């Protein structure tokens, strides 16, 4: 199981950078132009002139994560998922998202989101981090973008052939544990070597994974009918993990990168909060 405990780097004494400079460093790595047209990335709230000395990274901007940011004295909260993904006409304090915006502003915490631009980013994005934590060799985008090395998903090779059962156990050990665990479509004894991955809801890339010759495709939120089809036709086996778990490996990568890009002048911390929304499960059927 991946360690999701809080990790922190110390800043250079008496240092810090303006929020605008921190945002520029983030956007240099996670270009907003890579985001989907429907996405809502970038600065949600905060003053670009204010000095940032401490940054907290998390997958989701939940109430618990906002509490953590305030308790830590963070000046900036960077999340993968946007707080305001759909258009809104106001953020009153009696609205769930509005309440968080008010708490952040009152506490002097800025909020920034890197979503589908971080998914597509080359080298240090969500999908490269997921491929790396699984040990894939020479991963390349499954659906390339115009920018070299960028694109959705990744496909690469395991260092050695494994059974599907062994690969699923490797996934469970590498990613944060969640009540949903790792769900698998396929024969446990099937041999796998070529692995396609897509952090988050990547079911739309199943055909691309099959066309690329993947033995197994790991993603999240796979719908029932594509999973049934995958069990009935030739193509990759499926590993379905929690959405949160598939994107968590990006956090320490992004945090370390920002720390280094800013010359160690900003303290970075990875959230210790598990923001997977599922809390427990009952009535689990035995494996078949």
TrEMBL record:
Q: Which positions does UniProt annotate for a divalent metal cation binding?
A: 80-81, 119, 243, 247
> A Pfam family matched by this chain, by name?
DUF34_NIF3
Spell out the molecular function terms from Gene Ontology.
metal ion binding
List cellular component terms (GO): cytoplasm
Q: What keywords are annotated for this sequence in UniProt?
A: Metal-binding
InterPro entries, A to Z: DUF34/NIF3, DUF34/NIF3_sf
Family (UniProt): Belongs to the GTP cyclohydrolase I type 2/NIF3 family.
Fill in the subunit field for this protein: Homohexamer.
Report the protein name in the record: GTP cyclohydrolase 1 type 2 homolog
Q: Which organism is it from?
A: Modestobacter marinus
Upper classification of the source organism reads: Bacteria, Bacillati, Actinomycetota, Actinomycetes, Geodermatophilales
């Amino acid at each position: 199981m991946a360690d999701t405990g809080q990790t922190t780097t110390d800043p250079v004494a008496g240092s810090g950078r303006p929020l605008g400079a921190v945002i520029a460093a983030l956007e240099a790595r996670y270009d907003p132009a890579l985001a989907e047209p429907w996405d809502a990335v970038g600065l949600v709230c905060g003053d670009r002139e204010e000095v940032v000395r401490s940054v907290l990274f998390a997958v989701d901007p939940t109430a618990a994560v906002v509490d953590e940011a305030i308790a830590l004295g963070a000046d900036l909260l960077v999340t993968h998922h946007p707080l305001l993904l759909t258009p809104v006409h106001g953020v009153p304090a009696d609205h769930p998202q509005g309440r968080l915006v008010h708490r952040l502003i009152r506490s002097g915490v800025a909020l920034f989101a890197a979503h589908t631009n971080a998914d597509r980013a080359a080298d240090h994005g969500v999908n490269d981090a997921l491929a790396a934590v699984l040990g894939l060799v020479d991963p390349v985008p499954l659906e390339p973008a115009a920018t070299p090395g960028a694109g959705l998903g990744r496909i690469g090779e395991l260092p050695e052939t494994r059974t599907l059962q062994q690969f699923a156990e490797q996934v469970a050990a590498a990613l944060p544990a969640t009540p949903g665990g790792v769900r698998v479509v396929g024969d446990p004894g099937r041999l796998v070597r070529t692995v396609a991955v897509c952090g988050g809801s990547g079911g739309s890339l199943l055909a691309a994974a099959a066309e690329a010759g993947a033995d197994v495709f790991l993603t999240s939120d796979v719908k029932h009918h594509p999973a049934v089809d995958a069990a009935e036709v030739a193509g990759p086996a499926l590993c379905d993990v929690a959405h949160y778990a598939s994107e968590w490996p990006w956090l320490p990568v992004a945090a370390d990168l920002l720390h280094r890009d800013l010359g160690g002048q900003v303290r970075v911390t990875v959230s210790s909060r598990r923001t997977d929304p599922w809390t427990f499960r009952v009535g689990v059927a035995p494996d078949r």
